[in-house]
Write a structure and sequence with these properties.
Structural class: mainly alpha
Distance between the termini: 33 Å
């Protein structure tokens, strides 16, 4: 089961719990990290935090839908393969 992301409340608090990260990729740049937190303190990231959370939530729904489609398709193919194999072996239906 996929778990919806935690809403972003700070540059380093939010998103998926199993993969802690910043809201923005900084590649280790101290200057970028400092600016990110400075912008957060000034309240300039609230819209970004909201949109990021909305995107992650929609991604969760998309992945769940894709998983259901793949599993349904795999099950249908497995049942079809079993039917063909059973017919070839002259096995009675149970």
């Amino acid at each position: 089961m996929l778990i919806p992301p935690k809403p972003w409340s700070a540059p380093n608090i939010g998103g998926y719990l199993s993969n802690q990260s910043l809201i923005m990729r900084v590649r280790g740049s101290t200057m970028q990290i400092n600016q990110l937190f400075a912008q957060h303190r000034q309240g300039k990231l609230s819209q970004v935090c909201t949109l990021s959370c909305s995107f992650l939530a929609s991604l969760t729904r998309t992945l769940a839908s894709a998983k259901a489609h793949v599993m349904g398709s795999a099950q249908a193919h497995a049942l079809q393969a079993w039917s063909v194999a059973r017919a070839g072996m002259n096995m009675p239906k149970s």
